[in-house]
Amino acid sequence: MNILLTGANSFTGYWFAQSLADAGHSLTMTLRRAPTDYEGVRRQRANALASFGRIEGSCTFGDDAFLKVISDVPAWDVLCHHAADVTDYRSEDFDVVGAFAANTRNLNQVLTNMADRGCRALTITGSVFEPGEGAGSDGLPAFSAYGLSKALTAKSAAFYAARHDLTLGKFVIPNPFGPFEEPRFTAYLLDCWFKGEPASIRTPAYIRDNIHVSLLARSYASFVENLVSVDGPLQLNPSGYIESQGAFAMRVQQAMQTRLNLPCALELLEQTVFTEPRVRVNTDPVDAVAHGWSPCKAWDEIATYYERQHRR
User: Fold this and answer.
1) Integer Cα distance of 49 and 43 in angstroms
2) Cβ–Cβ < 8 Å for 204, 241
């Protein structure tokens, strides 16, 4: 299929692009900046994207450059809209309205132009932290203003997809981890261990849904492929390791100790403050065998990646 993918230089976007390319699809990937303008891990991902397909830099969803990318190609099959405004996404001051506007800029015109070129489906990326998504406690509220912006984006996408007779797919992401990740939970663990320090887990009691990003990406590619052959909207909430953050930290510890020959010490602190819902997880277990995915290989890739990073 001929696929237009936004947000390819994000952590998950990079892996989605790789899996779609590996499945034999033709990819055009839009980036907000020129590839050379990124730094750190984003630069690493941008440098690797060229092997997956065509890159269109300095191109933001819905702007004139984006519309030109659409018009320059005579036929499209799927628009995979993965990009989202994540500026200060953890902040209480996150701009919900501004993010929603950026995520849906000229959405009606974008879908008009795509449909005119034969596009059959629109895939959007959701988050388990949106209000009402997944399963868990506390009535499934939005975790944050960012989660609210994602929910508003999804509703707008559903409205305009129906108007243009496009099949809508929503792929809901839990907590992915793996190579090329920003400095988050797993990266923190490995950073501590390579420094010879214990990793302190301050929120070990939260129940979360952590999934290998490589497995998530294979699930995404399959989801996109299935979308063009179904009638009506389709949603998938792929699930990985559902367990406490303390148990997940111990899972990573066990996998890395044997591969890196490091102590990988952990300090599980007593959690007394719960500013987030205690439980939030996805609901659709992923069949790793059906996707030809190996957990052993995935852990090997994580160990190799972080070992190279810390030898630089």
Assistant:
1) 10
2) no
pTM score of the predicted model? 0.96
Tens digits of residue pLDDT in 8-17 = 999 999 999 9
| End-to-end alpha carbon distance in the chain | 39
Measured CA to CA, the distance from residue 173 to residue 210 in angstroms comes to 10
Q: Measure the CA–CA gap between 124 and 126, rounded to whole angstroms.
A: 6
The predicted pLDDT at position 312 comes to 64
**H/E element, 259:** helix 245-260
Q: How high is the pLDDT of residue 143?
A: 86
Amino acid found at 208 = R
| Bridge partners, residue 38, by sequence | none
At residue 146, φ and ψ (nearest 5 deg) are: -60, -45
Domains and CATH numbers, the chain: 2-174+211-239 (3.40.50.720), 177-209+242-311 (3.90.25)
> Minimal CA–CA distance to 2: which of 69, 84, 68?
69
